[in-house]
Structure prediction request, 230 residues.
Amino acid sequence: MCGRMTQINLAQFTDLFPWIIPPEKWHPSRYNLAPTQPVAAAVNHTVAKIEYLHWGLIPSWADDPAIGSRMINARAETLVQKRSFVRCLERRRCLIPTSGFYEWRANPGGRKTPMFIRMKDEKPFALAGLWDVWHSPDGSQVISCTIITTAPNELMKTIHDRMPAIVAPGDYRLWLTAETQEPAGLLRLLAPYPAENMQANEVSPRVNSVRCDDPECIEPAANEQGTLFG
Prediction:
């Protein structure tokens, strides 16, 4: 799964999407962004633009918005099989820009080690996502999103059995087209990202707490023995 991530110096992300309208105001950098919090996402409107969405998909047909806390991720392999996701895959797609994400590596004895995964060049990249609009009985609405996950690459296999689906820059425009798309053409974009372009570092257990949200969260742990694939 993908349950924590960073969005640092968000104005840099306009380099990823020079053809996408940025928000009127960027939120402060996030070093430990968690589900149910606002996350910046490039949304496939007629004119693509970056908005802040609720992380945790609340389907338009849901009776209770609390369902969003259970839908922070969507498995690429089963998207077309689930009512919650197939319509969004065809019509409501987004890219979630990030500087890196966290995953917890299981160790003998049950202890888990937090790992920070990013690109070797430390540049931002984009995760595949879906979005939807939920209308409350009081007339208000919530625009929410989920991050798609896929099978792990060789790097991620040493840490976890899933990883977020990273979209290659050359496929951004296809993923964000406002036109309805056939699922088959989109699913091919959700393969595991090449491990040789990524690195992973052990970081401090302080990232376990969502209250910790500062640059220290991404600093390599003092006892780290080296960088994986780095």
Observations:
- The longest strand covers residues 125-135.
- The chain has one domain: 4-218.
- The helical segments are 83-91, 172-175, 183-187.
